[in-house]
Structures are given as C-alpha cells and as structure tokens.
Amino acid sequence: MSEGQWWFCLKHMRVEPEQGCPNKDRMGPYASEEEAAGALQRAADRNKAWDEADQEDE
Questions:
Q1: pLDDT tens digit string along 12-43?
Q2: Residue 14 in 3-state DSSP?
Q3: What's the CA dihedral at 18, 22, 24, 27 to 10 degrees?
C-alpha cells in the first residue's frame, strides 16, 4: 500500500494519486488506493440509506 492521499476521478473513472485532476472532478481524499476505488459504491450505499430513511420519515 502506498502512502499519501488517493482520489477517485469522476472524469476518468479511475483512482489517482494526490497529483491528478482538479478536485472539482474527484472524490476524496482517501487514505489508500483500495479505499478510493470503493468511493462510488460507498456513495451509492449512503444514498440508498438516506433514501430509505427519508421514506421512513414520511
């Protein structure tokens, strides 16, 4: 595992090191490449949980 911060680039749909695309096009930072690679899945899981919580509130 490499040290430093990692990002998931939404423009290129890939993990990038700290030196990469502008932050406006990225999710992160993450502590590892593996964590950055799971960024989209984590976001989808959180969105689903929030949607379900909203439905319970109605």
A1: 999 999 999 999 999 999 999 999 999 999 99
A2: strand
A3: -30
- Could you tell me the pTM of the whole model? 0.79
Residue 2: closest CA among 37, 26, 44, 41: 37
CA 14 to chain CA centroid, Å, is: 10
Note the pLDDT of residue 43. Answer: 95
Helix (H) or strand (E) holding 9: strand 6-9
Distance CA 25, CA 37 (A): 15
